[in-house]
Amino acid sequence: MQRAAMDPAEEPPSMLWGLDPVFSAFARLYVRDILVMTESTQVPGIYFYKLHPIYKVDVLGTVVYKRERDDFFCYGVDDGTGVINCLCWKNDLFKEEDPAPSGAQHSDGAQGGFNLVAELKKLRETQRSRCRLEIGELLRVRGPVKTSRQQREIMASTFYKVDDPVMAVQVAWMMDVPQLYRLCYDKPPQLQPDAAGDSPISVVGKATNIIKDFFKQKSVTRFRPYDVQDLLQPLIPCQPQTASADQLCCVTVAVKEPVAGPSACQQLRQLLKEALQVLQDEGVVYRKVKSQDEVYNVTARDTDLLIAVKDVIREDSRREKYAEKGCHILHVLSAVRQRHSLNVSKATLQLVLKSLECNSDIVSTSEDHYTAF
Q1: In what order do the strands lie in the sheet with 52-54?
Q2: Calpha distance 139→63 (Å, rounded)
Q3: Are 154 and 144 in contact (CB under 8 A)?
């Protein structure tokens, strides 16, 4: 099966690969994705899944075929999405012979003492049984990905049989892997530094910290985007001056030339938009009413929201249904949205609940349950 290599124009420079945490980890990818990953044109043996550089993977699946040689096992592993060949080298345990029992061993066994040789033999047998699998058994394998004779396979650095009688390991695996795809693998990697030498993530982080400091210093309760836009101006790289004293004759020509990339004003608006989105995701700010007049409320200083949450918990915790455990956070969220604003997020509510609990207005009876004093 012939697989296309990564387009050199799309492939990120190899010096930036280390910025992606996936590169240094065993990626828990589905077998179907491992089989179709494109190979790097810069470094053979490095593959890309949605521009994430990958060279070692972690797979859990059922053995569907096996082949044994003097130096290695060859297992076909099926994780439900495809089958991949796993080359598992035998270690010295399979080559060494077990020590023969001695007279001292027989004497110790007769006296009922600890038999070191017998215990060592049991340990070796256990290790061998974990590495020698039959068809239908569950195998976990880790190692780098290789392409041999146009066939994608895993060169196992670690492999062992997984005892999973109630399928607890497989269920946990099937819940973890989709989460990794959503949070990491399917998101584009942040590998390109910006003009100032900072990654886009760090610039947005600096912008959010500047806005948070502004809230604390000015005791802000509500604001509009243009109130904080100028605060982020230092984070935007200055545009170089193209017209000097000895180039005035060329000003007309220079003005007509298009400027590559977004302008400083566009960059500032985009940075502000991303920073406000991060603050909303964290629950630090929220919009009580979504309208053309873009007004944001600062959660920590919104007394109306704090009172609404406290009233919901105080009133509903008296009801028989919530008297024992208290009100669940989702119940409080639904009630607050009906009373105060439909735009209150769970993150925003969590900050309010934390503030009320610190002030001893409410208490958490168990995880995600709250009641009033």
Answers
A1: 38-39, 47-49, 52-54
A2: 7
A3: yes
Range name among 9-23, 31-45, 195-209 with the lowest pLDDT average: 195-209
In this structure, the number of other CB atoms found within 10 A of the CB of residue 106 comes to 12
3-class secondary structure per residue, 157-185 = CEEEEECCCCCHHHHHHHHHHHHHHHHHH
**DSSP characters for 213-259?**
HHHHHHT-SEE-HHHHHGGGGGGSPPPPP---GGGGGGHHHHHHSPP
Nearest-5° angle of CA 191, CA 193, CA 196? 170
pLDDT in tens, 97-129: 555 554 444 445 445 567 877 777 776 777 666
| Helix boundaries (H) for the chain | 31-36, 103-110, 116-131, 168-180, 200-218, 225-229, 251-256, 264-282, 303-316, 329-339, 346-358
Residue 84: pLDDT band with limits 50, 70, 90: very high
CA-only gyration radius of the chain, Å: 31
Query: For residue 132, how many other CB atoms are within 10 A of its CB?
Result: 15
- Residue 26 and residue 184: Cα distance in Å, rounded? 13
Burial class (CB in 10 A: 0-12, 13-18, 19+), 188: exposed
Residue with tokens 């215990």, as numbered in its chain: 119
User: 190 versus 323: which is more confidently predicted?
Assistant: 323
- Whether the pLDDT of residue 191 is over 70: the answer is no
Each residue's pLDDT tens digit, 2-12:
455 656 567 88
Residue 242 to residue 246: CA distance in whole angstroms? 11
Cα–Cα distance list, 333 to 47, 88, 336 (Å): 44, 52, 5
292-315 core/surface letters (b: 16 or more CB in 10 A; e: else)? eeeebbbbbebeebbebbbebbee
* DSSP H or E stretch at residue 82: none
For the segment 200-218, the average pLDDT, to the nearest whole number, is: 85
